[in-house]
């Protein structure tokens, strides 16, 4: 009987945690739909490209990568290890596409 109660309590805690995380992402401007949380690519890319010397080019590349990966690394440069998909997209010439 104690094992069943412990299991139910653990499931309840897990459910509450997942619900909380979904609400946090939705509050950050993400849109919830069909079980996938989409981030706000425009907002994140504006922050990512804010210090770029070529902001229009940066925004175009960033939005393209974000729409494929649903991820933009934090900060204005680097941190590619936080979004492996974003870091793996290359141009036809083999150079990294995503800023």
From TrEMBL:
The protein here is known as: Gibberellin-regulated protein 3-like
Domain of life from the UniProt record: Eukaryota
Q: Which family does it belong to?
A: Belongs to the GASA family.
Q: Which organism is it from?
A: Camelina sativa
UniProt cross-references to InterPro entries, sorted A to Z: GASA
Q: Which UniProt keywords apply?
A: Gibberellin signaling pathway, Signal
Give the range the annotation lists for the signal sequence. Answer: 1-26
